[in-house]
UniProtKB/TrEMBL annotation:
InterPro entries linked to this entry: TM_pro_TauE-like (IPR002781), TSUP (IPR052017)
UniProt subcellular location: Cell membrane
A GO-annotated cellular component: plasma membrane
Name by which UniProt lists this protein: Probable membrane transporter protein
Topological type in the membrane: Multi-pass membrane protein
Pfam families: TauE
Keyword annotations from UniProtKB, A to Z: Cell membrane, Membrane, Transmembrane, Transmembrane helix, Transport
Transmembrane region(s): 7-25, 76-94, 100-120, 132-150, 156-175, 187-209, 229-246
Domain of life: Bacteria
Main location: membrane
PANTHER family, per the entry: MEMBRANE TRANSPORTER PROTEIN YFCA-RELATED, TRANSMEMBRANE PROTEIN YFCA
């Protein structure tokens, strides 16, 4: 499909803001996927093109965190592999099923995440004792990776919450390692969707340039302000995503309450 330069410029602006948000807390897809669909991109192609631009932005954030020594690549190798495999499978399923049925469950999960961050004690910047072992982390990450390949928005928020709540990581450390896991899932989904011929390259690459810049800004903000800013951004993005999903009359959860 062809779009005008003004539309591409607008999509790049959205991608920059989404890159900042993604690097800090996840949820940038809340902005980019609706923006792509508003530009006339079909749903599956919008998810695929979003994976292209967000992969570059997430890689930019990983680089920024890694330069500061914030990522333990050896410890998170197998979780990253699990995210890759789960996401590839999710993207494969996406091209064969209607992803809309997931929209009824995601608001509930996001609401639980918001409740956790509102009532839980203030997260430390230091890592604490993990409640679960590596096998559990690999399994949970694989499931979240499947969701990322199948749909996507909120993946970073889910990963950060899991790393903080179940595996005792400080917010900045959890955010940094979330970017690594998210990069693995993004790349897997992207490869699968490229093979399926779903990616719009010109739009995706233009947005990727802006997403890289946003990822650098977001990572630096996260490391500078720490949990003081990450926690509120997580909550706000989750609430916005809940509102966006439930505002659609076709959402199964919305339809359920409207028929009551």
């Amino acid at each position: 499909m062809e779009v005008g330069l003004e539309v591409i410029a607008a999509l790049m602006a959205v991608a920059f803001v989404a890159g900042v948000i993604d690097a800090m807390a996840g949820g940038g897809g809340l902005l980019t996927i609706p923006a792509l669909m508003a530009a006339g991109v079909p749903p599956v192609a919008a998810i695929a093109t979003n994976k292209l631009q967000s992969s570059f932005g997430t890689a930019s954030a990983v680089y920024a965190f890694a330069r500061k020594g914030r990522i333990n690549f050896r410890r998170f190798l197998w979780p990253a592999v699990a995210a890759f495999i789960g996401s590839a499978f999710g993207a494969w399923v996406l091209q064969r099923l209607d992803p809309s049925f997931l929209e009824g469950f995601i608001p509930i999960l996001l609401l639980l995440m918001v409740v956790y961050f509102l009532v839980a004690p203030k997260a430390s910047e230091e890592d604490r004792h993990s409640r679960l072992g590596m096998a559990s982390l690999i399994l949970i990450v694989a499931v979240i990776g499947f969701y990322d390949g199948f749909f996507g928005p909120g993946t970073g928020s889910f990963l950060t919450t899991v790393l903080v709540a179940l595996f005792g990581m400080g917010l900045v450390s959890a955010t940094a390692h979330t970017k690594l896991l998210n990069l693995a899932s993004n790349v897997a989904a992207l490869v699968t969707l490229v093979i399926g011929g779903q990616v719009l390259w010109a739009i995706g690459l233009a947005m990727a340039v802006a997403s890289v810049a946003g990822g650098q800004v977001g990572a630096r903000l996260a490391m500078r302000v720490g949990g003081k800013m990450i926690r509120p951004v997580l909550v706000v993005m989750a609430l916005l995503l809940i509102a966006k999903l439930l505002s659609d009359p076709g959402n199964p959860l919305t339809a359920f309450f409207l028929t009551r």
